[in-house]
Amino acid sequence: MDRPPAAALSTAPSAACAHCALRDLCLTPPSGAPPSWQPDTLVATRLPLRRGEALFQQGGRFESLYAVRSGFFKTRVSSPDGRDQITGFQMSGELLGLDGIGDGVHACDALALEDSQVCVVPYPTLERLAQQFPDLQTEFHRILSREIVRHHAVMLLLSNVHADRRLAAFLLNLARRLGNRGYSAASLVLRMTREEIGTYLGLKLETVSRSFSRLHERGVLDVRQRQVRIIDPSGLQELAGDNGG
Amino acid sequence: MDRPPAAALSTAPSAACAHCALRDLCLTPPSGAPPSWQPDTLVATRLPLRRGEALFQQGGRFESLYAVRSGFFKTRVSSPDGRDQITGFQMSGELLGLDGIGDGVHACDALALEDSQVCVVPYPTLERLAQQFPDLQTEFHRILSREIVRHHAVMLLLSNVHADRRLAAFLLNLARRLGNRGYSAASLVLRMTREEIGTYLGLKLETVSRSFSRLHERGVLDVRQRQVRIIDPSGLQELAGDNGG
DNA sequence: CGGATGCTTGAGGTCTATCAAAGCGAGTGG
DNA sequence: CCACTCGCTTTGATAGACCTCAAGCATCCG
């Protein structure tokens, strides 16, 4: 570690940046920015995490926002009576930590579902730069607002009465996000267990498993454990009630 | 209407402002603000709405944020297949319109459940002032983040398997918010129908009604149509799984 | 190879949705 | 003032969906 972190970051923006939620914050120099503007103006460092490791924990002090650079995360809130609720799955290019801004304390856990890497954006830095550059401020507000809208879609998902509809909508959402990032939208490898999917969708793991089997029987999916291939996307969409989320 | 709107606003901050989400934005002059700082620097005007009227609609152009000054609202998203999902109920002091910042277009409908009045905060004004005053910017980010955290609590609510738990958690949440605003937290008048509660909680209206009856039989509630009196708050809390939301 | 973890499938019980009917309550018009 | 209407709520019976408990299978890893 002879060279400073900044040197490690000053490499050309990687493919991972191309579809990042922070792209416009990170790569696009705001109007009025000095020519020396670099992505590492925002991203202080990158942080590797091992599968199962916590990026932050409920109640922990909020200091930074995180953009998933590679890997896969889940966020989780625990209620006082011990039940857990998974509030989201985050893949590369998506954000973690926005929940902490409100009270300076994280409102959920963030756990790596596989070996992962995140870009660390110290929040004081972001606030300072947002103050300095109006474009950056505007873009940051948009990001926060989109997170709110995203939750509306999740509520619509959870309001689906039937397990098959919930699962279909969930898979379509996952496939769409993977497709956006250049991966195949038809053939995907689940990074989470049946139980985690169930906790997210408000179903028991057995129900999730049965629902997978039913979707397979109807001929819209091929399922082999965590290997899922979408055979009939429009059929799946019809099942989901067309709300891709 | 001889006098200009600004004059109407320059009255001393009313009781409604005391518990408003925008309180710190609206009433507290940010550091560096001129002594002439007034609440109406942010609030351009106030808008009255009749019961059933829409404050804004899904797909409509986003221009302002709104703080509920009096009355009661619901926000609703419609899925392509015609199902509706109520994403929240907003009472005095709570915010509407944050969903529109992301793409400049509202992502949900906002409907008045009774005759209401809102404070209109033009968004360009807010962005300009946030640019000018760091305190105000910080506070606005907190408000956005808290909205995200609030949605986590709703997901926890929807993940409750049993109808009674969902309803209990819903009522406790409502009572707490009313209590925060100085109203009685024990005796409340519902402003929404059983069907609207059901759409919010992911239940059918008959199930909501039966659940009310069961809570009554257990002796934790008195229910007479929309008049609800909480007899045993701790019993209700126990039923809800202690997640007040 | 053996254990651990996760997945699938089965049977039975419980809860919710659905369909149906009757009971309030507020507002209207005679 | 009363009867009427309309929207909302309550309650009942039935069917269907999900949860629970339980057993067996697959996969991964030391």
Please tell me how large the radius of gyration of chain A is: 19 Å
SS elements, strand count of chain A: 11
Give a quick account of the main beta sheet of chain A: strands, pairing sense, barrel closure.
4 strands, antiparallel
Report the helical percentage of chain A: 25-40%
Strand order in the sheet with the most strands of chain A: 1-8-3-6
Describe the structure.
Two copies of one chain form a homodimer. In chain A, strands 1-8-3-6 form a four-stranded antiparallel β-sheet. In chain A, strands 2-7-4-5 form a four-stranded antiparallel β-sheet. A three-stranded antiparallel β-sheet of chain A has the order 9-11-10. In chain A, β10 and β11 (227-230) form a beta hairpin. In chain A, α5 (163-180) crosses α8 (233-240). Chain A contains eight helices and eleven strands. Chain A has helices spanning 5-9, 23-26, 123-132, 134-158, 163-180, 194-201, 205-217, 233-240, and strands at residues 45-49, 54-56, 64-70, 72-78, 84-91, 95-96, 109-112, 116-122, 187-189, 221-224, 227-230. Chain A has two domains: 18-156, Jelly Rolls; 163-240, Winged helix-like DNA-binding domain superfamily/Winged helix DNA-binding domain (Arc Repressor Mutant, subunit A, Orthogonal Bundle), CATH 1.10.10.10. Chain A is globular. Chain A is an alpha+beta fold and 245 residues long. Helices cover 37% and strands 22% of the residues of chain A. The A-B interface holds A 77, 79-81, 83, 85, 87, 98-103, 107-108, 127, 130-131, 134, 137-138, 140-149, 151-156, 158-159, 161, 199, 202, 241-243 and B 77, 79-81, 83, 85, 87, 98-103, 107-108, 127, 130-131, 134, 137-138, 140-149, 151-156, 158-159, 161, 199, 202, 241-243. Chain A binds a DNA duplex (30 and 30 nucleotides) through residues 161-163, 193-195, 203-207, 209-210, 212-213, 225-226.
